[in-house]
Amino acid sequence: MIKKQKKRQQLLIFGMGVAAIITFVVLGLRFSYIMVTGSVKGIDLRARAAELSTRSSIVAASRGSIVDRDGEPVALDATSYALSAVLTDEWSVPGGKPNYVQEDQKADLANLLSLVLDQDKEYILKQLNKKDQKEVQFGSKSQSLTIQEKERIEKEGFTGLVFKEQPARLYPNSIYASHLIGYTQREDKSATDDATDTTDASEDQSLLTGAMGVETLFNDQLSGTNGQYTVEVDGNGLEIPQTRRMVTQPHDGQSIQLTLDSSLQQSLEAVMSEVYEKYAPKTMQAVLADPETGEILAVSQRPTFNLNTLSGIDDSWQNLFYENAYEPGSTMKVLALAAAINEGVFDPTATYESGTVKIYDDTIHDYNKVGWGTISYLDGVARSSNVLFVKLITAMGEEKWHDYLNAFHINQKTNSGFSNEATGSNPFDSQLQKVSTGFGQGISTTAAQMMQAFITIANDGEMRPLHFYNATLSANGKELKKETNDVIANPITSDSAKKTLEYLKEVVYNEQGTGQIYEIPGVQLAAKTGTAEMVDPETGQYYKEGDSYIYSVVGFAPADDPKYVAYVTVEQPQKNPDGQSGSEIVAQVFKPLLTRALKSGGYLDEETQTSGTLPNLVGQDLKTAEKTLKDLGITQMKAIGSGSTVTAQYPSAGASLFPGNRGFILTEGDASVPDMTGWSKQDVTHLADLIGVTITSHGQGFVTEQNIPAGRPITQGDVWNITFELKEED
Description:
This protein is α+β, with helices and mostly antiparallel strands. Belongs to the transpeptidase family.
């Protein structure tokens, strides 16, 4: 018995020994495997250990700016603050200062926030008295406070308020080509990150991304690339000093330079707002462009919205200039006239019977229904005769006219880059519809298409792409890419283009011209008016009553060599307190816009239209030079210097000095700083180049301040700090 028991014990001990040996072997092999591979069940233990002992954080890249043609920012990076109020005392430190909103503060806090946030006081009190929430916010406005608003709230000393810093976008001009510029919205990066991402969740990972306009179109270039750093942490998750290591450097976004002239743009926005408020049209559009380059200098629409607050955006999300197709009306006659001249079927002295013309069973009338009897073709242009343009389309042939519409790129996108750019439509089916397109009916286009065609006529028949993008700039201002403005079409000859502009002067200066109201003293203007009937969307027919028209005008100035083309449309004014005609309403936008441009460019002088070619004045006695200029009728040359002999001049010999532009005669001897109040930026720049000083400019418009007072001696190497501001039109 004892012998058997002893044998069982020996077997048990042997079995345990074998089991122990097997266990040690298995564990040894397992540890060896882990030591060699560094992983368990596909998990990299080294990486996991590093994750537990390190933390990654984002280093945000700055979003690039959007700047105007002079490099002044119209959209730039900023910081905003999201406000919330803590209602619970659960997070307070015992014995410490309360970090929640106290009951006796709520009424006063509601008063303050209602003022700062422009919110209803009762709504704020309701938020502050919520019993089922530990922390509350106060609407969208409270989520984008400026630093000034934040400091205004903080200085009152209320407890329990939390301000979270976050990236934001600042638009210095608020309303400034808003649908073109667009806006950004915050995108929460953490919402799309993988769950295993070890980036510090406490860091603000919201990114700005474009939501409209240029902000969207160039989002990739503007966005830049965020950087990342790692830091070691202890067992409590606290950062260990001097362990921060940059993994990737941030790369700030590129800037986008536009062709817009801020002086002209801001002036346009002001006059658009004034007219929109007074007459309440359904829509308004205005655009100014340089025909030689195709650059858009100013563009605006109503309704519009505030870029900073987005106030008004619900009234219209549509970029009307590119996305809204409409019947252009009689401004289309500009293209029909150019085509007729190019085809040799327009004789300004030929006559025809105005009033009506039959197209099979249909009758087309002039706008007064009865016409003006037998008149010349040129008078027909001045009076905007529909009958004349039916005759011109018929004479050149409907299909030939269709070819010209295509050559002028009508019903083709202008390659703006915007995905919603419209093309409009032109069925070109019945003969009535075909000839009606000659006076802008039965065809729909966009303002962008019309403007591109207009600048072609102003540019000797050469079409350059209409564009608002000028260049892409690196973060340090280096030009990376430049817009090209090569000729893309030649729909008419230079001679035809010049004749078109010559004949369009009749619209303004003929006693029967429909555009007399658009005359601008001091410059010759070529123009064409338009009054397009509106189609009732319910019936598909033109409205029979009410002010259901799109009033428009296109102007070319100076007419003989256009430097600017302006196009304005006003749709269905809902108010008319002073009984103005459609043209009179349009003129309230058109004339200030074009007048300011002409003044700024030096092409307008209300006292004289003289522009002279300058002789060589260098080496002449100053008095002799001044007499020479006076004899030529050139009165805007200013002498700089105390000597009696001319040593330099601007403009140079052989160049022209246009009305409203300043020229300069430099003499030997000491020179004094002139009083530049009221000068344009162009005038200041020309003088500075002539005498060899540097200027730094601030703002847009005309000189209001100069750091070196008038009368002080001019010294080589001087830096003139000049402030420009817009001034109201007389």
